[in-house]
Amino acid sequence: MSGDFNNWNREEFAYKKLDFGKWELVLPPNPDGSCKLTHLSQVKLVVRNQHGHLLDRLSPWATYVTEPPVVGHAYEQRIWNPKPQDKHKWTSSKPKKPDNLKIYESHVGICTQEQKCASYEDFVRVVIPRIVKQGYNAVQLMAIMEHAYYASFGYQVTSFFAASSRFGTPEQLKYLVDECHKAGLYVLLDVVHSHASKNVLDGLNEFDGTQACFFHDGPRGTHPLWDSRLFNYSEIEVLRFLLSNLRWYLEEYQFDGFRFDGVTSMLYHNHGCGEGFSGHYDEYFGLNVDTDALIYLMVANKFLHDKYPEIITIAEDVSGMPASCRPVTEGGTGFDYRLGKIFFTSSFKAEIRVGVEQAGKYKVVLDSDCSHFGGAYAESHDQGWSRAGREVQGSAGLRLFTLRRLQPSGPGHCIRDLP
């Protein structure tokens, strides 16, 4: 380890290798007995690769990472250890788990109309009172996990354990979650375990100097459309990293659940690219299914629901994988809900064909297995922001008009009178 605490001497403090891929470093105290690493100290890990070269890296477990002072430089890892009086003190108990979720999907950075990157405190001031008044009982936060590329909308994660410093400090995020709980809102984190940024200097990519480590080696380790790295879920240390990441956000930040991003990409070797998913079982139980990824999702859900009974997990899967929302003990994947994007697409197409006024008269058929608990997003960011700049908010009235008239079928919940 090197840092500003030792004038960036790369050889002074070396880690000791332990079993099972673990490394340990015990830093001696300063002569006066104080810790060498102080609050906001800047540090880096120094990795010697297979060729003997020294590589500067950020710790995969970094909990606070900040933007560099010079545009284009790598993000910087800093020690987050404020004084006891500066640490957030939790004041609110968690609300009761909702029987019928009404989720407000949100991005902290764009939560105000001001021309700036909004903050966690802005979110508390602007968003929470409004969505409580409108009848929501849960909020889903996007782009919380640190990402160097802001335009990725938070989906090119570079530091998995660090809450984005663009919006404020870790204590301010805790304040946001605490205020949500005070207002009776469940807080869901949009967690990205389907892929990772390909950044090297401030990401997980080539952490040990190889293409593997956390990811698959060779072509299998790169997503063909997203140009990002793909986790090797068959490695025990990768599973430990991802599972501990889930536990971190539940215990450190008191989140109430997760929406797992990109589950369709995880489930299939071709990542669902070019697939129509007609619903035939051959599409779900053939050689195209990535069993390692499927097992990881089952393990994650079993661990989460056993240890945190009040948790909610949602799968962003548009393929219709059977038994996604059945318990792991029954052979399912263990999610509580599965996101159904087909509703947005169907309602939008209906509006384009016949206009807003007439579209409400048409029945929107959800082409999915009705045995799942489904989440129908009226304004999903995936469709809304990807239409090449086209304004789609005008179709909100149509979608909400239709939502209020959807009748419950199977175990799914009907969403009524949602602003």
Automatic annotation (TrEMBL):
It is an enzyme of class 2 (transferase). The keyword Transferase applies. GO terms for molecular function: 1,4-alpha-glucan branching enzyme activity; cation binding; hydrolase activity, hydrolyzing O-glycosyl compounds. The keyword Lipid biosynthesis does not apply. Pfam families: Alpha-amylase (PF00128), Alpha-amylase_C (PF02806), CBM_48 (PF02922). It catalyses: Transfers a segment of a (1->4)-alpha-D-glucan chain to a primary hydroxy group in a similar glucan chain. Keywords: Transferase. InterPro entries: A-amylase/branching_C, GH, GH13_cat_dom, Glyco_hydro_13_N, Ig-like_fold. Residues 114-416 form the Glycosyl hydrolase family 13 catalytic domain. SMART domains: Aamy (SM00642). One of its GO terms (biological process) is glycogen biosynthetic process. GO terms for cellular component: cytoplasm. Its EC number is 2.4.1.18. Belongs to the glycosyl hydrolase 13 family. GlgB subfamily. This is 1,4-alpha-glucan branching enzyme. It comes from Diaphorina citri. The lineage of its organism: Eukaryota, Metazoa, Ecdysozoa, Arthropoda, Hexapoda.
